[in-house]
């Protein structure tokens, strides 16, 4: 029974870990919704990546934030590898944010993102709790630090793949050069032996 409970908790943890990473279809997009009130803040940090373990390219994509009913675009980022967007909501409603792969046919492109919302609290309101505001601010800064660390991990993975690919090419180029030098040496030995060979006619 304990093994079953442990397995169930591990499965829930894995689902939670993958909740903010989505695969973008080729020439498609993925959209998400948030219901917010006027003067709330919406903060989204994201990074485009490649699910292929052999990839060395830095993926890019588009990001848009739409107002209620998609009437207007509040924020737009085109052909970026990562971003950190923060907007103050102008009115109540359901806001949509989309990650787009419409200009690319890559099928292994994904996006890792974190979202947080800050509820507006009037500082002049006598019911406002300043300690609560300080805790929220500390929590927001902690999440930003975590998001930055996640971004650094993804960049390190991409750079490591690039370095390993370059090292592989240098290794095979060195092997090829060694082969050429050996062949050239053997040819020179053969040629010099033929050049100094004494021929006699009877």
From TrEMBL:
<feature type="transmembrane region" description="Helical">
    <location>
        <begin position="172"/>
        <end position="192"/>
    </location>
</feature>
<dbReference type="Pfam" id="PF01105">
    <property type="entry name" value="EMP24_GP25L"/>
</dbReference>
<dbReference type="GO" id="GO:0005783">
    <property type="term" value="C:endoplasmic reticulum"/>
</dbReference>
<keyword id="KW-1133">Transmembrane helix</keyword>
<keyword id="KW-0472">Membrane</keyword>
<keyword id="KW-0732">Signal</keyword>
<protein>
    <submittedName>
        <fullName>LALA0S01e13344g1_1</fullName>
    </submittedName>
</protein>
<dbReference type="InterPro" id="IPR009038">
    <property type="entry name" value="GOLD_dom"/>
</dbReference>
<comment type="similarity">
    <text>Belongs to the EMP24/GP25L family.</text>
</comment>
<keyword id="KW-0812">Transmembrane</keyword>
<dbReference type="GO" id="GO:0016020">
    <property type="term" value="C:membrane"/>
</dbReference>
<dbReference type="GO" id="GO:0006621">
    <property type="term" value="P:protein retention in ER lumen"/>
</dbReference>
<keyword id="KW-0931">ER-Golgi transport</keyword>
<dbReference type="InterPro" id="IPR015720">
    <property type="entry name" value="Emp24-like"/>
</dbReference>
<dbReference type="GO" id="GO:0030134">
    <property type="term" value="C:COPII-coated ER to Golgi transport vesicle"/>
</dbReference>
<dbReference type="GO" id="GO:0016050">
    <property type="term" value="P:vesicle organization"/>
</dbReference>
<keyword id="KW-0813">Transport</keyword>
<dbReference type="GO" id="GO:0006888">
    <property type="term" value="P:endoplasmic reticulum to Golgi vesicle-mediated transport"/>
</dbReference>
<dbReference type="InterPro" id="IPR036598">
    <property type="entry name" value="GOLD_dom_sf"/>
</dbReference>
<feature type="signal peptide">
    <location>
        <begin position="1"/>
        <end position="19"/>
    </location>
</feature>
<feature type="domain" description="GOLD">
    <location>
        <begin position="29"/>
        <end position="117"/>
    </location>
</feature>
């Amino acid at each position: 029974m304990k093994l079953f409970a442990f397995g169930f908790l591990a499965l829930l943890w894995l689902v939670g870990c993958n909740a903010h990473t989505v695969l973008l279809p080729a020439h498609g997009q993925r959209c998400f919704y948030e219901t917010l009130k006027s003067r709330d803040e919406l903060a989204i940090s994201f990074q485009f990546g490649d699910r292929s373990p052999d990839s060395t390219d830095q993926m890019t994509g588009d990001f848009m934030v739409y107002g209620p009913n998609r009437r207007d675009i509040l924020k737009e980022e085109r052909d970026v590898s990562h971003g950190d967007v923060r907007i103050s909501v102008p009115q109540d409603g359901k806001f949509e944010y989309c990650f787009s792969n419409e200009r690319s046919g890559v099928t292994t492109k994904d996006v890792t993102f974190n979202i947080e919302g800050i509820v507006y609290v009037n500082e002049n309101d006598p019911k406002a709790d300043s300690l609560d505001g300080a805790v929220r601010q500390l929590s927001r800064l902690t999440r930003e630090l975590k998001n930055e660390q996640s971004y650094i991990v993804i960049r390190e993975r991409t750079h490591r793949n690039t370095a390993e690919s370059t090292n592989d090419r240098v290794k095979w180029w060195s092997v090829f050069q060694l082969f050429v030098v050996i062949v050239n040496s053997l040819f020179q030995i053969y040629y010099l032996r033929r050049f100094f060979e004494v021929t006699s006619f009877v």
